[in-house]
Specification:
The protein is an alpha+beta fold and 538 residues long. It is 33% helix and 22% strand. The protein has a five-stranded mixed beta sheet with strand order 4-3-12-7-8. Strands 5, 6, 9, 10 and 11 form a five-stranded antiparallel beta sheet that branches. A hairpin with a 4-residue loop joins strand 7 and strand 8. The longest helix is centred in the middle third of the chain and has 29 residues, at 179-207. The chain is globular, with a radius of gyration of 30 Å. The protein starts with a helix and ends with a strand.
């Protein structure tokens, strides 16, 4: 077969369309790599995948977000970013195919997609304005130019073939496309894009170096009011039960940040202002370290936690009493005539969380926390400073990476989650969970230890009961209580007969309220119902 005949087959077979698809994919890759590199000069949060993903989170219905957390857990952000990349890849390949006939139109398509990223960037709550749009714009321009260039290498050269001639008659002289030129250009583009992407990723990684150094050098002073020693018997030695203190690496994380903010504690400041604030404050990290710190064991719960779910954890927190700071600002709670009934905490990533002023000033250990389990806060959990308020779900209390506190009213302002159909006020509901045996376990007949945890923060757990199938409720043995703001472990020795069984648990809090059987979704103010597991006893 002659070279002309091979070239002619390439124009009529799959090679040219496949190369067109590859050119689109390479253009998309180049766009993302360029954007990654440019974002290093702006800020890591301005990359197109991050801003488009953030815009998707902001515009996703609450029920869909809740489904994602329930099914993907703390990996929901990874799946979202993979989804964004998949859509970009499909779009890029489609534009590459279109460029075979409509080169300029396909290039405009790349620019339009870049415009979407730019609009998403400047519309984010924490946007720095037009500078955040630069990565998306630069990436789109590079992607469009590369697509035009590669599509040019795919253009047919020479006279068009005679449509009436049989294929066997051979190709017209010179008819074909620049296969060798395309391969060279595609290889060079892939190499350059990879280099740009790797460099951008490295520079973005180093951009948080000062923040990491500030955390490494942070030393938490001894608290003026240390947490009491854990009572004897607070920890049950039962395999499979949740640890009383949740290690930092195992503590749940539910937030909307696709990139964990790395805040430099040396330059961080917190402002307190708003209605009823007669003495505004601006505080540095060192200012807080010099204050009287307290240490407390407090259990946190996410409102997205399903009945029996994993989004609850207990830690030892160290920080400054929020009520003392508010008192210095001459803030009065509504019960004493204060004009503000809502405290709006703002994070460096633009998140807003609203807490009742009355609750944070009613004497509970509401904190601006600086430490967690004996060390400065991990970045994933809010370094340098976060809020912790016992008894309230995280979405109305646990602002991470906090930088601003504004006193206002519930009538005047709706925070992030309230705008998305969650309740304005959300005290944690009385809940209990069976940790062992696990669902569908197959224990041996005879003694089986049923155990778990129960929580009703700021009220405390008074009793836990377990039911086997439709039998009577049996009172479980409670571990010693640390404080009313922490969960309690419980256990029940069960003489398990052979066969299938359903184990159900319920708790009673210190006010005498029994955990309700009525099932409720997490939206709008937390799930309710009894947790149960099905086991087969062999």
């Amino acid at each position: 077969m002659t070279e002309d005949e091979k070239e002619f087959r390439n124009t009529r077979g799959w090679t040219r369309p496949a190369s067109a698809a590859l050119s689109g994919a390479l253009a998309g890759f180049a766009a993302l790599a360029t954007a990654e590199l440019v974002s290093a000069a702006v800020r890591p949060q301005s990359g197109p995948v991050v801003v488009v993903g953030g815009a998707a989170i902001d515009r996703t219905p609450a029920a869909v977000k809740d489904w994602a957390i329930r099914n993907f857990g703390t990996d929901d952000k990874l799946f979202l970013q993979l989804g964004v990349l998949f859509v970009l890849a499909v779009f890029a390949i489609a534009l590459g195919m279109a460029a075979l006939r409509f080169r300029r139109t396909a290039a405009v398509g790349v620019l339009l997609f870049g415009a979407v990223g730019a609009v998403a960037a400047i519309s984010q709550p924490d946007s720095n304005g037009l500078s955040d749009a630069l990565p998306s714009i630069a990436g789109a321009i590079v992607g469009a130019v590369l697509l035009l260039f590669l599509a040019g290498r795919l253009a047919l050269r020479g006279p068009a073939p005679d449509a009436t001639a049989a294929p066997e008659s051979g190709p017209p002289p010179g008819q074909g496309w620049d296969r060798r030129g395309f391969v060279v250009a595609a290889t060079a583009a892939a190499a350059a894009s990879t280099g740009a992407g790797v460099l951008g990723r490295a520079l973005n990684g180093s951009s948080g170096r000062d923040a990491v150094a500030s955390r490494d050098e942070a030393v938490l002073p001894a608290p003026v009011s240390a947490a009491p020693a854990l009572p004897r018997g607070v920890r049950l030695r039962i395999p499979g039960i949740s640890s009383f203190t949740t290690p930092n690496d195992d503590f749940y994380r539910v937030d909307t940040a696709l990139v964990v903010p790395k805040v430099n504690a040396r330059t961080w400041r917190l402002s307190i202002h708003g209605k009823g604030v007669r003495r505004p404050l601006s505080l540095s990290y060192d200012d807080l370290l010099r204050r009287e710190l307290i240490e407390r064991d407090i259990t946190l719960t996410c409102v997205s936690n399903e009945v029996g779910g994993p989004y609850v954890g207990n830690a030892r927190w160290i920080g400054v009493r929020l009520s003392e700071l508010l008192s210095e600002c001459r803030v009065l709670p509504p019960s004493r005539g204060g004009p503000a009934d809502q405290l709006v905490a703002r994070s460096v990533d633009g998140m807003t969380i609203g807490s009742p002023v009355e609750d944070v000033m009613d004497g509970r250990d509401a904190l601006l926390a600086l430490g967690m389990n004996g060390e400065p806060l991990p970045f994933a959990h809010g370094f340098p400073v976060r809020m912790v308020v016992p008894g309230l779900y995280g979405y109305v209390s646990a602002c991470k990476w906090i930088e601003d506190i504004e006193l206002t009213t519930f009538d005047d302002y709706d925070p992030y989650w309230v705008k998305r159909d969650w309740a304005r006020r959300a005290p944690i509901k009385t809940q209990s969970r069976i940790d062992t045996p696990k669902p569908f376990a197959r224990p041996q007949a005879g003694p089986v230890m049923v155990a778990g945890v129960a929580w009703a923060q700021h009220r405390g757990i008074d009793k836990v009961e377990v039911r086997v199938d439709d039998g009577p409720w049996q009172e479980a043995r409670l571990a010693a209580e640390d404080t009313r703001d922490t969960w309690r472990q419980w256990s029940l020795a069960w003489q398990a007969p052979k066969g299938g069984h359903t184990l159900t648990v319920r708790a009673t809090d210190r006010t005498g309220r029994v955990q309700t059987e009525k099932r409720a979704r997490t939206i709008p103010d937390g799930a309710s119902g009894w947790h149960s597991v099905v086991v087969t006893v062999d």
